[in-house]
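QA checklist item 7 of 12: single-chain prediction sanity check.
[x] sequence parsed
[x] length recorded as 215
[x] structure emitted
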Amino acid sequence: MFVETELVGMSKVIVFGAGGGTGLRVVEEARLAGHDVTAAVRDPAKATLDGVRVVAADIRDAASVQAAVDGQDAVVSAVGASGRRALGLYSDSARTLVAAMESAGVPRLIAITSAGVRHDDPSFPLWYRLAAATLMRDQYGDMRQLEETVRSSTLDWTLVRPTRLIDGEATDDYRVQDAGTPNGGSEITRADLARFIVGELGKREWINKTPTLAR
């Protein structure tokens, strides 16, 4: 674990999955916070990102990921599957990112998974537990593999587990609990999630933990 690295003030941050709804929010929040932000997307020509550097990187392509993370201080993974089938996207991204970051000496990784990764969370209603075990089994299973790969790395990692993501502006009215959903919580805005992640880049309060976020 890279225990001596401190990310204070402005730092060089790259966001993977920057073209998605959550990734866009993270990029904008990090830019507003004064970080030197790079957005990693598969096709920069399709990206509509202002005020940040945009690079081409396929999360499953080791060479492009290695080139993208070189020289960065921190990585945020907002990679997400578009449907119920993950098709190995989360676990593949973890293996590629961890290898590239360890090779480049980039210490800090914040990766987004989901509160549903913990299928036995006592805060979940019965219907959600059933959905997690059936309809969302592939996605959550692949996220668990991502988490296992990250946990086994030498990185200073944080695995952020939001509850159901909704659109809307930041409220700063949410709760955070390690490895479990706050009682009665069921959703959080993408803007609040992004604000938490960017704040954690400097505060480092959740190193090697799995904060679960909910209103």
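[x] summary fact logged: The chain has one domain: 12-214.
[ ] second reviewer sign-off
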